[in-house]
UniProtKB/TrEMBL annotation:
InterPro entries: MFS_trans_sf, Plipid/glycerol_acylTrfase, TM_effector
Provenance organism: Ideonella alba
This protein's name: MFS transporter
PANTHER family in the cross-refs: MACROLIDE-EFFLUX PROTEIN, MAJOR FACILITATOR SUPERFAMILY (MFS) PROFILE DOMAIN-CONTAINING PROTEIN
Membrane topology field: Multi-pass membrane protein
Keyword tags: Cell membrane, Membrane, Transmembrane, Transmembrane helix, Transport
Domain spans labelled Phospholipid/glycerol acyltransferase: 479-595
Spans through the membrane: 72-92, 129-148, 169-188, 194-217, 252-275, 287-307, 319-338, 358-383, 395-418, 424-444
Length: 655
């Protein structure tokens, strides 16, 4: 596995606006660097869905179109909307890398106004072919805005804000989709005696949203080009292939793209089956179908928002396996719960909610969509931060292409299963199984997700883990993290505290510990033996450590050379000086506190892990991190002194 530091900015990328401390992601809505962008994308997503849903209802209930029968209307309209993502994503990614993203957003919103003017004509004349052309235009509008949407955030938000910012965007998108569908459905159903017909109300609403969106977009702050000398390749086929190869250059990023696309595959099955699921399985009317959409959208939105809380305002990819587990578990339970729903006559919303078995269905739907929010937001943040700034928009364009392909395959696959005689609940059950298999495969290919999940669980459910001074961990570039060694899970706790992956230099004997040894091998920790015991292995370990730093990554070491047997700080050995002789990098002192005496530390005759829960669950442990030390001032003694100060309860260093 190749791991790179959380994205260092491209030299041409403008510095991010300095972030003032704020309590949560909602504070971003008061700042110009985020608020105009957020409302621009919110209004665009809402408008797309107002018009799409209204048009679908129009050709389903109001007008007859020989070439667009009602039973195929939703499928055809959805396919036409997705088509531009396949055709033009590669081009839109290049444009977003080459030009100012704020200016591009403004031009795209101007295009939206033109599309909505054409839609007014189509709705007035009830001209379905023109309206379908407008659907294609809105798909093009979304395609052009997509790379701008996700490449914009890393230029204005720092690492501590990117998860919250993405959570807000994902929440806003799903709320906008929900509101757009509701408004579009209500407006198109207005009775003919109203002062505006339903079609006219939709037309004026859509145009108004487009104009407001364009006005808000004018407030988006300048976001300079990250690749101004890029020569545009207008061939979508060759550029699509080039973008996919570009994304594949960083396997962690590419496999994260596949992970996000799988989430859209997963979600598209549910979204596409809600009407039939409500009618044929739950025996509900159209209001029940709308309720399913509401529950799903709220679940994804809340899951996205909670990512910042669960991750302590870092990019916490350990949430991805948690989300994947929830998606499978609750999709499987939805299959079982839906299979138990009793037969009945068609139920209205009130009658539906009066059936106890239906509440389990709604709870499962909410939980699996909440899990999907936890799953997707950290992946988006990882892609944004680890993609080179000069290519970021094109990599996001590759993501949009993959998303579109996966959604198309999802629709075709679900249709084939239903045609083969599978019921909708059975399709959900098969999807739960497939999700579990895909997740296991992805997490074994990219162990970093699994490792961070273990670290997240340990620091949230075994201990109450408090970190002080984590701003001293460099956001980019190589550094050595030097920490005292108290227990067998010290490295796991450091993983939980760091926003970046860490390669550890560890005593070779720890690899013999069951489970933990496998975990550290998965993390590609570097085994080191004492020089007197195995000189060749000692030199090989130093060479491997130097290679980690040469690649710009973080190296974690425990200079005591072994786990303390009495809870006291032991003398630091000279390995850290040997590493710095080869490559001068900053050294960040760290101190684990209150971990001595826990299950994983050596007590009672020098043994560890002999009495489970001897301190109970959720006991507080801590990590203090001090300011980085320049290589020139580092000796084993100076680092030990810095760590000792952090351990001193009267010291405020690192707080």
């Amino acid at each position: 596995m190749t791991t790179k530091p959380l994205q260092s900015r491209h030299p041409q990328e403008e510095p991010r606006v300095s972030a003032q401390p704020h309590p949560n992601q909602f504070a971003l809505l008061r700042q110009r660097r985020f608020a105009p962008f957020f409302w621009t994308q919110f209004l665009g997503a809402a408008n797309d869905n107002v018009f799409k849903f209204a048009f679908t209802m129009l050709v389903t209930y109001r007008i007859e179109v020989a070439w667009l029968p009602p039973e195929l209307a939703g499928l055809v309209i959805g396919a036409v909307f997705i088509l531009p993502f396949l055709l033009f994503s590669a081009t839109s990614g290049q444009l977003a890398d080459k030009y100012d993203k704020a200016r591009l957003a403004q031009l795209v919103k101007s295009l939206e106004i033109a599309i909505m003017v054409a839609a007014m004509v189509g709705l007035h004349l009830q001209w379905p072919s023109l309206l379908l052309g407008c659907i294609f235009g809105l798909g093009l509008h979304s395609t052009l805005f997509g790379p701008v949407k996700y490449a914009y955030l890393p230029q204005h938000l720092d690492e501590r804000e990117i998860t919250g910012g993405n959570g807000m965007v994902e929440m806003g998108t799903f709320v906008a989709i929900l509101l757009g569908n509701v408004v579009g459905g209500v407006l198109i159903a207005l009775p003919d005696g109203w002062w505006l017909t339903g079609a006219e109300a939709v037309a004026w609403t859509a145009l108004t949203l487009a104009v407001i969106g364009r006005a808000v977009a004018q407030r988006i702050p300048p976001t300079p080009s990250t690749s101004p000398n890029l020569v545009i390749n207008w061939n979508p086929v060759t550029e699509t292939w080039r973008n996919l190869r570009l994304a594949h250059g960083n396997l962690v990023v590419f496999r994260s793209l596949l992970g996000i696309s799988w989430m859209w595959f997963f979600g598209a099955v549910f979204l596409g089956q809600f009407p039939s699921f409500a009618k044929d399985v739950l025996h509900g009317d159209e209001h029940v179908a709308s309720l399913l959409l509401v529950v799903f959208s709220v679940g994804v939105g809340l899951g996205s928002l909670m990512c910042e809380t669960f991750s302590r305002r870092h990019v916490e990819i350990g949430l991805v396996p948690l989300g994947a587990i929830g998606m499978s578990v609750f999709a499987a339970d939805l299959w079982w719960a839906a299979s138990q729903v009793p037969a009945s006559d068609r139920l209205g919303l009130g009658a539906f909610l009066g059936v106890g078995a239906n509440w389990r269905v709604l709870a499962d739907l909410f939980a699996l969509s909440f899990s999907a929010g936890l799953y997707s937001v950290p992946m988006y943040a990882l892609i944004q931060l680890r993609s080179p700034a000069s290519h970021r928009a094109r990599i996001i364009a590759a993501n949009n292409i993959l998303n579109a392909i996966f959604m198309i395959v999802s629709a075709v696959g679900a249709g084939m299963l239903l045609k083969a005689g599978f019921s909708i609940p059975q399709v959900f059950g098969l999807l739960a199984l497939a999700n579990a298999l895909v997740a296991a495969y992805v997490f074994l290919l990219v162990p970093e997700y699994l490792l961070r999940f273990v670290a997240w669980v340990l620091s949230h459910f075994i201990y109450r883990f408090r970190v002080q001074g984590d701003e001293h961990i460099p956001a980019q570039g190589p550094a050595i993290l030097a920490c005292n060694h108290v227990s067998f899970i010290d490295a796991v706790l450091l993983m939980a505290a760091s926003p970046r992956p860490i390669r550890f230099l560890m005593d070779h004997r720890i690899f013999q510990v069951p489970v933990l040894g496998w975990l550290f091998r998965l993390a590609k920790a570097i085994p080191v033996a004492p020089r007197g015991e195995d000189p060749a292995a000692y030199e090989a370990a130093l060479a491997a450590a130097d290679q980690v730093l040469a690649e710009g990554d973080l190296l974690g070491i425990f200079p005591e050379g072994g786990i303390t047997r009495d809870g006291q700080l032991q003398p630091f050995k000279g390995g850290i000086a040997k590493i710095l002789e080869r490559r001068a990098v900053p050294v960040v002192p760290m101190a684990l506190t209150n971990l001595w005496g826990s299950f994983f530390s050596r007590v009672e005759g020098g043994t560890a892990m002999v009495k489970p829960l001897r301190r109970g669950l959720f006991n507080q442990v801590g990590l203090k991190i001090g300011p980085a030390m320049a290589a020139g001032e580092v000796t084993p003694q100076t680092v030990q002194t810095s760590v000792a100060r952090l351990l001193d309860p009267t010291s405020s260093m690192g707080a």
